[in-house]
Design brief:
The chain is α/β, with parallel strands linked by helices. The chain is built from 8 helices and 7 strands; from the N terminus they run βαβαβαβαβαβαααβ. Keywords: NADP, Oxidoreductase.
Length: 248
């Protein structure tokens, strides 16, 4: 029997990369899936088609706004009548050190990476029952022994996510809702590969004891684990999914 049969999951940024792999993995485990996207309707529709129209719904919404959070939750409830798993995956990776960061850079990064997940949880929580699961996305770079300065802005947003995970788990635990975060290492999405030379990719792979870059499906499998019965006694934790690149 599929571990998530009869459950409904909402995945922000679900049309590409880790989000897309997560939608497929949740569906394979038995869940119906709400696939949020910001602009690329064709990619989101392709995910829905692959899963099946009866068990998937594509929703265009701004994952960095309160209005978007309300829209996504309402759409899930209207279509499927319940919500059991919330995966706040949507985010951006600004490469900005302290000198180069503008106010616009800062606001944009915190809007999507922090404000969006914060208010998505706020809007979803009243509709979640005991044994529901919230999974946020951090990064193993928050725990790596060396990080280059241009990751400052990005890592600061993910540091906020990790604190949200810990504090929310205490708050929502009273309702029986689990809150955890997945912290991927370098993962082979289209966005990750864009603009990187073969030599750079080899260098990044060399930072890992397995001498390779992670796959979106490996991150998705961890999300599915944290969404199911097998993780019932795990909450407030940051799960490093990085092949041993960093200890979380």
């Amino acid at each position: 029997m599929n571990s998530l049969a009869g459950k409904v999951a909402l995945v922000t940024g679900g049309s590409k990369g880790i989000g897309r792999a997560t939608c497929y993995a949740l569906a394979k485990a038995g869940a119906s899936v709400v696939v949020n996207y910001s602009s690329d309707a064709s990619s989101a529709d392709a995910v829905v088609k692959e899963i099946g129209q009866e068990r998937a719904l594509a929703i265009k919404a701004d994952a960095g706004s309160v209005e978007g959070a309300e829209q996504m939750v309402k759409s899930a409830l209207d279509r499927f009548g319940r919500l059991d798993v919330v995966v706040a995956n949507a985010g951006i990776l600004p490469m900005k050190d302290i000198e180069s960061t503008t106010e616009e850079d800062f606001d944009a990064a915190y809007r999507l990476n922090v404000k969006g997940p914060y208010f998505l949880v706020q809007k979803a929580a009243p509709h979640l029952t005991a044994d529901s699961h919230i999974i946020l996305l951090s990064t193993s770079l928050c725990h790596a022994s060396t990080v280059t300065p241009n990751y400052l802005l990005y890592c600061s947003t993910k540091g906020a996510i990790e604190q949200m995970t810990k504090v929310l788990s205490k708050d929502l635990g009273r309702k029986g809702i689990s809150v955890n975060a997945v912290a991927p290492g370098p993962t082979g999405t289209d966005l990750f590969y864009k603009g990187k030379s073969e030599q750079m990719l080899k260098t990044i792979a060399g930072f890992n004891p397995h001498n390779r870059i992670g796959m979106p499906e490996e991150i998705a499998d961890a999300v599915v684990f944290l969404s199911g019965e097998g993780s019932r006694w795990i909450t407030g934790q940051i799960l490093g999914v990085n092949g041993g690149m960093a200890s979380v």
